[in-house]
Design goal:
A: 15 helices; 14% strand; globular; B: mainly alpha; 2 helices; 43% helix; 3% strand
Chain lengths: 394, 87
């Protein structure tokens, strides 16, 4: 085999600039990718000279392309046809990381997306290693904190705060353990808010002239991988079936509203959304949310924070089989008054709730005010600053 | 009033211009291991420019897989020889 040492950085005589890899895996939609893009955008604004390389295992890399970042798109390792190809791919990724020789390597998610042992074995020892996580359950967090990957990690950024609207999920002793662990940093949500310019752009693009209330249905910008649900759940299909039923019933009812459905880029979603504007993917989803009177959504991490930042009244349809316990998150939000909850699969209840809420201006105003009270500021800048500061400290 | 006559709505047709980008870069030439790493190194050290690499199996040159297969077989054989030598 050819000796890779023949290709060395010294041959190029280029000055060393800060190099950073963001490595993310495949989820229900494109949430991991969007979170990494949000973080990278903040890093780029703080330190524009950073060379950023994404390594992603999703079929769709549109958010990275739209944001103008560079990427290596690799298949989902466990879906490859044979073990030899899987091995080859893993070694190729390891070669890519060693060749790029990053100063900072960020891996997003609870699993090691390079495969078991990849994080601690494939990333150079001299590289500052960061895990980007959200608040998983105590069992999952304990498993992560007892792993080789955690021991090899220099910094764990948890993209939430400990005192937000999410359910606590943790025992007092574990809270103390996390709070005192010097590796762990709670940055707040790594999310994105729409600018006034973006809101104007989507209003012009979709003809949202404010003449009618707008009801938005979405499972997040990425929607749903048909083949990639948790624990054999069909909640993704179920959510869009409910949205389809709601659009149909709204159209028949003569309710004077505009309906928009964002399906995600993985379609086709085999549903008809009567009289609705159907959008497969739009990078400006936060601006569409900010232009809406009511959002009906499945509460993945990104769309949940995007809806709260936009202070958009919400009806939540939680999935039951997700690591972040969407049902408890939704119930907590309902207690604050910022959202209403409808069980997955109950299409009639969804239509009734939409009808009740959208016609009640007082209730809509109260929901907006509640979202404003509990909304946690965007922590992207915090996370980026912490990673850059720590990562450049010898 | 119904929204049935709203010219901006439709019966479920896709009005977005943003279609999903699957297998971006799928039209690129088949990639050898050396070519991939050369591009990575160039991107790491260049002052400008972007990199879009798709390393799905169908975009890899057959030699890329073969090289790693050979390395895997070599590693396994070395391991077995090591085991046999152990008392």
């Amino acid at each position: 085999m050819e000796d890779l040492a023949l290709i060395t950085r010294e041959q190029t005589n280029s000055p060393k600039s800060l190099r950073l890899i963001l490595h993310f895996g495949n989820g229900i939609g494109i949430g991991h990718q969007v979170r990494c893009v949000n973080l990278a955008t903040s890093i780029r604004s703080l330190f524009p000279a950073t060379r950023i390389l994404f390594i992603g295992h999703t079929k769709n890399v549109r958010p990275i392309v739209d944001a103008g970042f560079s990427y290596v798109q690799a298949p989902v390792l466990w879906n490859l046809p044979e073990s030899a190809t899987r091995f080859a791919n893993r070694q190729l990724l390891a070669d890519i990381i060693r060749t790029f020789d990053p100063d900072i390597y960020v891996q997003d998610g609870e699993s090691d997306y390079g495969g078991e042992g990849f994080f601690e074995l494939a990333v150079p020892l001299s590289t500052y290693k960061v895990l980007l996580l959200v608040r998983y359950s105590e069992d999952t967090m304990r498993r992560i904190m007892n792993s080789q990957r955690f021991r090899a990690t220099d910094l764990v950024v948890i993209a939430q705060t400990l005192d937000d609207f999410y359910p606590s999920l943790y025992s007092q002793s574990f809270l103390q353990e996390m709070a005192h662990n010097p590796k762990i940093f709670f940055s707040g949500p790594i999310t994105r808010a729409a600018t006034d310019q973006q809101i104007s752009a989507v209003r012009a693009k979709y003809g949202l002239d404010g003449s009618k209330p707008i009801i938005l249905f979405t499972a997040g910008a990425g929607g749903q991988h048909s083949h990639c649900d948790h624990a054999g759940s069909h909640d993704g299909e179920e959510f869009f079936a409910m949205a389809s039923h709601a659009c149909e019933t709204i159209a028949r009812s003569g309710l004077n509203v505009r309906t928009i459905v964002v399906t995600g880029p993985y379609g086709p979603i085999a549903r008809r959304f009567a009289n609705a504007t159907v959008i497969t993917y739009d990078p400006l989803l936060p601006a569409i949310i900010a232009s809406s009177s009511l959002i009906v959504f499945r509460p993945g991490y990104n769309v949940l924070h995007e809806a709260l930042l936009a202070k958009c009244p919400a009806i939540i349809v939680p999935s039951v089989a997700t690591p972040e316990n969407q049902l408890r998150v939704a119930e907590n939000l309902a207690l604050t008054g910022a959202a209403r909850v409808v069980p997955m699969g109950d299409a009639e209840a969804l239509f009734s709730e939409i009808l009740r809420v959208i016609q009640n201006d007082t209730e809509l105003s109260e929901m907006k005010a509640a979202a404003d009270r509990i909304c946690v500021p965007n922590g992207s800048h915090n996370a980026a600053l912490h990673i850059l500061t720590m990562g450049q400290t010898p | 009033m119904s929204n049935q006559d709203d010219p901006k709505t439709s019966s479920g047709e896709d009005t977005s211009e943003e279609q999903g980008t699957e297998t971006a870069g799928s039209s690129q030439a088949l990639l050898t291991r050396r070519e991939i790493l050369k591009q990575i190194l160039q991107y790491a050290t260049a002052s400008a420019g972007a990199l879009a690499l798709n390393i799905f199996p169908e975009n890899l040159h057959p030699s890329t897989i073969t090289e790693y297969r050979a390395a895997e077989i070599h590693a396994e054989e070395s391991q077995q020889r090591g085991r046999r030598r152990k008392p």
